[in-house]
Amino acid sequence: MDPRCDVSPFPGGAGACDVRLDAGRTLRLPVAAGTVLVARAGRLRVQEPPRWLGERMVVVGQVLAEGQAHAVDGAGWVEVGALDAAGGWLRRIDPAPAPASIRIRLQHMVHAWCGRPASVR
To answer: Is residue 61 helix, strand or coil?
Structure first.
């Protein structure tokens, strides 16, 4: 059996969620930029999506000991693997949603002030 998991166990992908990884298992999960991955138990290997550095594609990886965290720089698919014989626990903390743009806020303020929809250009 291939020890890889292509399905994210995080329903909806919002908030903070925990997942257990068995020894030798690798989990692939989609993440947004700014997502924080925390090793709650065991040692975990984290590999970010490939990125271009000059004319080379490089994969940024890091080993997290229990209690250590890693913030993901760019959106994409991240691989997390359990390195210890006992497996490990991963906590994924999604970034807060971006606030509405200033233009949208201004439209709402004008609408509230005038009592009718307004267009801001």
So the answer is: strand
Question: How many folded domains does the chain comprise?
Answer: 1
Instruction: Enter the tokens of residue 95.
Output: 């970034």
CA atoms within 13 Å, Cβ hemisphere of 39:
22
CATH number at residue 73: 2.60.120.10
**CA-to-CA distance for 5 and 25, rounded, in angstroms?**
8
User: Side-chain half-sphere of 116: how many Cα atoms within 13 Å?
Assistant: 1
- Please answer whether residues 37 and 46 qualify as being in contact, where contact means their C-beta atoms are separated by less than 8 angstroms: yes
Whole-angstrom Cα distance, residue 31 to residue 73? 10
Backbone angles phi, psi at 91, to 5 degrees: -115, 130
Paired tokens of 105: 């806020």
pLDDT digits (tens, 9 = 90+) for 86-97: 888 888 888 876
- How do residues 102-120 score in pLDDT, each as one tens digit? 777 777 777 777 766 555 4
